């Protein structure tokens, strides 16, 4: 059985989360520089059995696509070209960064740790994946 991988795509950093093989638990995997994302995915997907990828879909309050969607579309085209047989789904990621920050506060992280944007991206990817598992 394959895992599900979630991506919180950003122009600078991208958070990545993954499920266990039974697809029960979503866990933060890492945050990578977006310029290194495709190389990371090639290595990871060669080593792990991933059956689908979930990519966050940033929207405004008005339900319109956010400005970063144009960059995500370029990434999705490259992803589909590199891994044509791997299903990719989108999920609304509104408020995941705020939820990630709230999670950091609730778990008792100190202010300095909460300023770690890479950690926020990884937690955001985990929230995207949990949402997919819960609603999917």
TrEMBL record:
Enzyme Commission number(s) of this protein: 3.1.-.-
GO terms of biological process kind: rRNA 5'-end processing
One Gene Ontology CC term in the entry: cytosol
Subcellular location: Cytoplasm
Domain of life of the native organism: Bacteria
Molecular function terms from GO: hydrolase activity, acting on ester bonds; nuclease activity
Domain YqgF/RNase H-like: 2-100
Keywords: Cytoplasm, Hydrolase, Nuclease, Ribosome biogenesis
Entry function: Could be a nuclease involved in processing of the 5'-end of pre-16S rRNA.
Stated family: Belongs to the YqgF HJR family.
Full protein name: Putative pre-16S rRNA nuclease
Source species of the chain: Sinomicrobium pectinilyticum
Gene: ruvX
């Amino acid at each position: 059985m394959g895992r599900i991988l979630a991506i919180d795509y950003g122009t600078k950093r991208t958070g990545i989360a993954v499920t266990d093989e039974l697809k029960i638990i979503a866990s933060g995997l890492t945050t990578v520089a977006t310029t290194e994302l495709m190389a990371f995915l090639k290595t990871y997907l060669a080593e792990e059995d991933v059956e689908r990828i979930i990519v966050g879909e940033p929207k405004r309050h008005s339900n319109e696509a956010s400005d970063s969607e144009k960059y995500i579309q370029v990434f999705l085209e490259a992803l589909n070209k590199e891994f044509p047989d791997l299903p990719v789904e989108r999920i609304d990621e509104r408020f995941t960064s705020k939820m990630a920050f709230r999670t950091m506060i609730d778990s008792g992280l100190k202010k300095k740790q909460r300023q770690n944007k890479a950690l926020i991206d990884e937690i955001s990817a985990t929230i995207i994946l949990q949402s997919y598992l819960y609603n999917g």
